[in-house]
Write a structure and sequence with these properties.
Largest sheet: 6 strands, parallel
CATH architecture of the largest domain: 3-Layer(aba) Sandwich
Shape: globular
Distance between the termini: 33 Å
CATH superfamily of the largest domain: P-loop containing nucleotide triphosphate hydrolases
Helix content: 40-55%
Strand content: 5-15%
Strand order of the largest sheet: 3-2-6-7-1-8
Length: 569
């Protein structure tokens, strides 16, 4: 990066700062250069660090990668890069006893929380009250009340606030425009004692649904009166390409009719028999091109509007119809796979008595109740109650429920016939296959969800723990607790995520990630923007598509149906 006059001023500036810029404008890079300069100038005292906060682990991974070329080796221990959740969890573990009188906390993963609250109405306020009650009375804490608890803790103890400031006198807040109300309150409070450097893109605010506000940047200016540095027109991610310009034009509707380098809008004929065929054809061409240039060190993302489209595209890419299958990763929400993983881990353990059946019923109940993350249907609620009654009485009515119990019995009998090998990956798949041909949808869902569990990759945390258990005991004793701990650690681990190869995810999930190429896909029945969309929906879609389009370093391709092309393209 060239240190121009404006960047030099930013490096030397003191006090609260607001750094504005779009994708690839260098906000992160210049903030790390500034952090390195602060450390070199001896401003930090012994034990003090600069804290860099971001929302997503993918962003944290990217920032850590940047530090290798920007932060000198002797300065790396003076900067801490973390997610909001990771930072707040550290605080809660140390000081939460001041507001709930409990010595130890139990972290509720999203999957566990979803199962626990599955029968509650989807009213946000009611659910929040229930989560706060769990924290106060049971010491169980959910991720989405972290900021609120931390703010309460700071307000109750100026001493804790001062300790945080003494440890982190300077805090860099990435993606500031996406902070919700509780996170903003937390930053405001910490900003009374520490210096805040906010990095923000006014045009990349896509998280209205989680409480982000169009007023947030103005609120920061009003509250902190920061010195402002604007790099909106700069692009260092896809230098020499028109990708960022396209994204900026898209916001204003100025992209219609214009030609861009390395941004293509492909109008394809809809194929009713194989609606995803053109996607696979384009991907095969792109992968061939990438492999020719980079060998195996390439990355391509397919971005779609909905989860339904994500699964549809994934299924077709895996199929062996008229085109070869394409191996890919799917960015699925973790609740279903996590709860399915607990079921499989439980069956890997050595227990083979009556408690195995009871435990399996309990785990499957949690999966059926928690996999969607929302209030369960009356049918599922009644099914769950019937299973509770069966455990107590041995009686159950209804053909679907009887089938479920029969298949559980058959499944456990088949489990007794499996001789485990001690190779975690192989044994995991052997247990997973027990669910593959089940007729009960609740058991079939376990198999389908478990296919997306990625914690068992060779060298991954869970795989290592299972292998260790086998070496020690010749069994997988403690597999369930190992996987539950692995899910918690996986949420906080800021290790580099390897985005090599082909990935499919929703538009929202792409935020904070970078790929060599991006394909943004819509089909006839699932347009990127509804043709009868309201003015508000169109504005929101412009922001979202800008984020998606600018995830690419080299090339962005829109695939839209020729007979009804996307109205924004």
């Amino acid at each position: 990066m060239i240190i121009c006059e404006k960047r030099a001023e930013l490096i030397e500036a003191s006090g609260h700062l607001l750094v504005l810029g779009g994708p690839g404008s260098g906000k992160t890079t210049i903030s790390l250069v500034k952090a390195n300069t602060i450390i070199n100038n001896g401003i930090l005292e012994n034990g003090q660090k600069i804290l860099f906060l971001s929302f997503a682990r993918s962003t944290v991974s990217r920032i850590q990668e940047h530090t290798n070329s920007i932060i000198s080796p002797e300065n790396k221990n003076k900067i801490e890069i973390n997610t909001y959740h990771g930072f707040i969890w550290k605080l809660l573990q140390s000081f939460s006893y001041l507001i709930n009188n409990r010595k130890f906390l139990q972290l509720l993963t999203p999957a566990a929380e979803s199962a626990l609250l599955a029968e509650m109405d989807d009213d946000k306020e009611l659910r929040k009250q229930a989560k706060m009650a769990l924290f106060k009375t049971e010491g169980q804490v959910s991720f989405d009340i972290f900021s609120e608890i931390a703010s309460e803790m700071f307000k109750n103890s100026k001493r804790i606030l001062d300790l945080v400031s003494q440890r982190y006198p300077i805090i860099i807040v990435d993606e500031f425009q996406d902070t919700d109300n509780n996170e903003w309150e937390l930053i405001k409070t910490i900003g009374t004692v520490s210096t805040i450097i906010a990095l923000a893109d006014p045009e990349q605010r896509i998280y209205d649904f989680r409480g982000a506000s169009t007023e947030r940047i103005d609120q920061f200016i009003k509250n902190f009166d920061p010195e402002i540095f604007d790099f909106e027109q700069e692009n260092n991610r896809s230098t020499g390409k028109d990708i960022t310009q396209f994204g900026n034009d898209l916001l204003k509707g100025a992209n219609i009719g214009k030609q861009y380098n390395d941004v293509a809008v492909v109008h394809y004929p809809f194929n009713r028999a194989e609606p995803n065929k053109m996607l696979k054809i384009n991907l095969l061409t792109a992968i061939k091109r990438q492999k020719k240039d980079k060998g195996e060190q390439w990355s391509i993302a397919v971005l779609v509007r909905t989860k339904k489209m994500m699964f549809s595209a994934s299924s077709y890419l895996s199929s062996t119809t008229s085109l070869p299958p394409l191996y890919h990763e799917v960015a699925i929400d973790p609740n279903g796979p996590a709860l399915a993983g607990i079921i499989i881990a439980g069956l890997m353990e050595p227990t083979m008595d009556i408690s195995r059946f009871t435990s399996l019923v309990s785990d499957v109940k949690n999966h059926m109740k928690g996999r969607s993350g929302t209030k369960i249907s009356n049918e599922t609620s009644q099914f769950s109650t019937a299973l509770d009654n069966y455990i107590g009485t041995g009686k159950i009515k209804g053909s679907k429920r009887i089938l479920f119990i029969q298949e559980l019995d058959q499944l456990l009998a088949a489990r007794e016939e499996i001789v485990l090998s001690g190779i975690p990956e192989e044994d995991w798949l052997a247990i997973r296959r027990l669910f593959q041909n089940c007729q009960s949808p609740y058991l079939k869902n376990v198999y389908e969800d478990a296919k997306f569990l990625r914690l068992l990759k060779k060298g991954a945390l869970l795989s290592e723990r299972l292998a260790s258990a086998w070496r020690s005991t010749g069994t997988y004793l403690g597999a369930k607790s190992s996987i539950e701990e692995a899910f918690v650690q996986e949420h906080f681990i800021a290790a580099q995520t390897d985005y090599r190869g082909l990935h499919i995810m929703t538009l929202h999930k792409s935020k904070g990630k970078e790929f060599d190429e991006v394909f943004i896909w819509e089909d006839y029945y699932n347009p990127l923007v509804r043709h009868e969309a309201s003015a508000k929906e169109i504005v929101e879609s412009r922001y979202l598509l800008r984020v998606a389009a600018t995830r690419s370093r080299e090339r962005t391709t829109f695939l839209t149906v020729a007979s009804q092309p996307c109205i924004l393209l």
